[in-house]
Write a structure and sequence with these properties.
Elements lengths: L5 E9 L4 E3 H5 L6 H8 L3 E3 L7 H16 L8 E5 L10 H9 L5 E5 L5 H14 L5 E9 L9 H4 L4 E10 L6 E8 L7 E3 L5 E2 L2 E2 L6 E3 L1 H23 L8 E4 L4 H11 L10 H4 L6 H11 L8 E8 L3 E8 L5
Parallel strand pairs: 4-5, 4-6, 13-14
Antiparallel strand pairs: 1-7, 2-3, 6-7, 8-15, 9-12, 10-11, 14-15
Helix pairs in contact: 3-4, 7-8
Length: 329
């Protein structure tokens, strides 16, 4: 991996005001709070209003970043939004965000790597800045998963929520954030987690074509708890350290039991993991930035901490990033 010349300088987040508790879900499907908490660890999630869309959440997360870190985004030269729930097929959420922020001269595109989207976005931003093609990139992981959730399917509707997290990545050759990365995909198993658009078949198999997320939770779980531990090892070995040297592990917040299993298989202390799922549920591309923001607000993340981010999900795609935590004060 080339020596990075990029640093994460600021973060921000936003979640909708509306709260959906486990008790609320009891009124929709056959479930209960004890069953949900035991299997997922989730207590509640945030739900966007009917008139609130992914670009709105992304905008509010960017505003939060600017307010907290006294940052200007006027000179951002690229916006990347990681999402699987865009407002429209086109224009992109990133283009809508550019308009809302009033940035006149910037590139903008969406990236869809589902729940691994934020880590993929960071990887792209680091590469572009290190290559000298960009100087200042805004990355946002934003989702309104509630709009594609089937609230008659108790195996999926208990999981998902809405939210957004933003990060600013800037040129800094002297004190870069990015240390190593590992990416992969298992497209052969993509049928285990999908939402239909135009195609009605995948590899000859008929799909449930209702636009909702469809998941074979058991198969995704098995894939994640075997793939992520191997990826974590690959990321740290590329940087020449042992996993025990990592200060914080921030996995995609899919399911608390899944995170516990990954930690058990890698002997990584669960006390040194950050997640956002207890109060926000699975927000796909937004889970990792939301978890990082929780770490900042609770004063857990310290300057120069080694932080291992690992996104994984639909695709089935995954991406790990080892970073040094060195945001602007």
């Amino acid at each position: 991996m080339l020596q990075s010349k990029a640093r994460i300088t600021a973060i921000g987040s936003y979640v909708p005001e509306r709260v959906m508790t486990n008790e609320d879900l009891e009124k929709l499907v056959e479930t209960n709070d004890e069953w949900i908490v035991k299997r997922t660890g989730i207590k509640e999630r945030r739900i966007a209003e009917d008139t609130e869309f992914t670009s709105d959440l992304a905008y509010r997360a960017a505003l939060n970043l600017m307010e907290r870190f006294s940052k200007s985004l006027e000179d951002v030269d690229l916006i990347i939004v990681s999402t699987l729930t865009p407002d429209y097929r086109t224009p992109s959420v990133a283009s809508r965000l550019q308009a809302k922020l009033g940035i006149k001269q910037t590139g903008a595109f969406d990236l869809n790597a589902a729940c691994a989207g934020f880590t993929y976005g960071l990887h792209v931003a680091n590469g572009l800045i290190t290559a000298g093609l960009n100087k200042k990139i805004l990355i946002v992981g934003a989702e309104t998963i509630s709009k594609i959730t089937d609230y008659t399917d108790r195996t999926t509707c208990i999981l998902f929520g809405d939210g957004a997290g933003a990060a600013l990545v800037e040129y800094d050759e002297q004190n870069p954030s990015f240390l190593s990365a590992h990416l992969g995909s298992n497209g052969e198993s993509a049928i285990n987690l999908y939402g239909t658009n135009i195609a009605t078949q995948m590899d000859g198999e008929e799909l449930i074509s209702n636009g909702h997320l469809v998941q074979n939770g058991r198969e995704v779980y098995k894939w994640a708890v075997t793939t992520v531990p191997k990826g974590m090892k690959a990321v740290t070995e590329k940087f020449g350290i042992d996993l025990s040297n990592v200060d914080w592990f921030v996995p995609h917040s899919a399911n608390l039991r899944m995170i516990e299993s990954i930690c058990d298989r890698t002997s990584f202390p669960i006390e040194r993991t950050l997640n956002s799922l207890v109060n926000y549920g699975n927000t796909s591309a937004a889970t990792i930035p939301l978890a990082l923001d929780i770490g900042v607000r609770e004063e857990k993340l310290k300057k120069d901490d080694l932080v291992l981010l690992y996104g994984f999900g639909g695709g089935l795609a995954h991406c790990g990033q080892l970073i040094k935590w060195n945001l602007d004060e």
